Amino acid sequence: MPQHNICVFCASSLGRDPTYSRLATEVGEIIAKSGMGLVYGGASIGLMGKVADAALINGGQVTGVIPDGLRSRELNHKGLSELLITEDMHERKRIMYERSDGFLALPGGMGTLEEIFESATWTKLGFHKGRKNKPVILVGSSSFWSPLISFLDMLVEEELMKVSDREIVAYEENPKKAVDRLVSYFDSP
Ligand code: AMP
């Protein structure tokens, strides 16, 4: 079993730009090759499926966590190392956060944004199980993430968010550097 798990939040669709799929595949491969386990939402579709497929092909340990309602729509990935079925979305997200040491976010929609900000809020409040501080790194092109990054910076300027809380959500364009950043964080005392 891997010593540490990285949870990936990303779209349940493929998106318009093929670079999203390439990024998802790259991230799955890098996580597996770095010896980290992958935790994610358990779907076979969209960027979620791409991350999982790439991690599995490269010998990674992949845990999917999916609510029963989504599974019955045949959306769950059939080849995972482990599939955990939950009653609802709340239990699913709690288990995804509990099972992982840090988070990477790739391009996604409403569900991805929800997971970024919920997991960051739990770090801010010290609500995570085990390691209290579980960072989130936004990964991929700056043109995709810059509107969100600007908005977060504006919240600090408006004194609606502390600088220390703003730092919970980091950004790294390069997926290898993003994984390395999490791994070095896991290794620090
Ligand atoms: P979205 O960004 O709206 O596509 O939502 C993707 C995120 O929300 C993932 O990280 C999942 O954990 C969760 N999610 C949303 N829709 C689905 C789905 N159809 N199947 C599995 N997970 C989903």
CATH topology descriptor: Rossmann fold
Residue runs with pLDDT of under 50 for 5 or more positions: none
Number of β-strand runs: 7
Average pLDDT, all residues: 96
Rg computed from alpha carbons, rounded to a whole number of angstroms: 15 Å
Q: What is the first-to-last residue Cα distance?
A: 21 Å
Largest sheet properties: 7 strands, parallel
Category from helices, strands and their pairing: alpha/beta
CATH class: Alpha Beta
How many structural domains in the coordinates? 1
SSE order, one letter for each helix or strand: EHEHEHEHEHEHHEH
> In CATH terms, what is the architecture?
3-Layer(aba) Sandwich
Hetero groups: adenosine monophosphate
Taking strands numbered 1, 2, ... along the chain, how are they ordered across the largest sheet? 4-3-2-1-5-6-7
| Helix content, binned percent | 40-55%
Secondary structure layout plus pairing:
Blueprint: E1 5-9, H1 18-33, E2 37-40, H2 46-57, E3 62-67, H3 68-71, E4 82-86, H4 89-98, E5 102-105, H5 110-125, E6 136-139, H6 142-157, H7 163-166, E7 169-172, H8 175-187
Parallel strand pairs: 1-2, 1-5, 2-3, 3-4, 5-6, 6-7
Helix pairs in contact: 1-2
Adenosine monophosphate (AMP) binds at residues 9-13, 41, 43, 48, 66, 70, 75, 108-112, 115.
In brief, what are we looking at here?
This protein has 189 residues and is of the alpha/beta class. The protein is built from eight helices and seven strands.
